[in-house]
User: What shape does this take?
Amino acid sequence: MIDKQGFQDDAVAQSFKRSLAMIEFDLQGNVIWVNQKFAVAMGYTVSEMIGMHHSTFCPTAFAQSKEYQDLWHKLRNSRQFQDKVQRVNKKGETKYLEATYMPVFNGNKVEGVIKVATDITDREQHTAQVVTNLQQMAEELNRRASDGINRNKQLVQSIDLIVEESIDHLATLHTLEAQTDLIKGITSTIQGIASQTKLLALNAAIEAARAGEHGRGFDIVAKEVRKLSDRVEESIKEINGYMEGIITEVAKVSKGTAQMQESIQSGQSQVHTAINDFLSIHQASQQLDEQAKSFQMSFNI
Assistant: This one.
């Protein structure tokens, strides 16, 4: 029946009892009434639950805690309680309930407690599984990031060694290049001496021709000196050819080594960037792991 203030209280109460999981306790925590929905959710029959103590449905650690005593102290003193709670069914299995404890008054005096609950076990178990999966993913990501960091550090060490060796090689090539320049200078000096010797031999031959019969021996020596000078010049030209080839090859190797060094240094920079990226991933995975653990702890209420 509906009056001007809405549905009658009895009708509303009966509707709640039919639709929601409900249970009533006296002030000592003993069950005095329970509906079918609540009994089924906990794995009992209605008759089995009558007279059972509230602590029977709680995890042992919670039932023996100060927090449990405080809960009932507040209920006896007119304080309502609403939260997600962890309970134990007849088989000892964990159940999660969205529960509201409300003091029942007789006038101004609390005479009992009524509890309205929603079974959220499936939802919580699914959420817990998701959290576990996230935690495992975080741990795997963390492991791979650590492996990546270690491998990149080893690669950096190898690259550093290559860079040092390439610098040493480049220095050696520069030294060799300088020495070839010195040799080239020496051959140029020898070539100058040979040219002067050839000129002197030519002058000596001219003077020997003027001296006639008396200068014949001197002419023979001058010719031999000129032949030697010619051979020296030819050898110098040949040496110069070899030296030019060596200088060209040294220049090529120096250029290649310098380019390789630049490439290695570029790779070294990229590896350092990769290490920093792995460190960021490592930190993010640790934060994800911590959040997953924190979230998981919220189930143990």
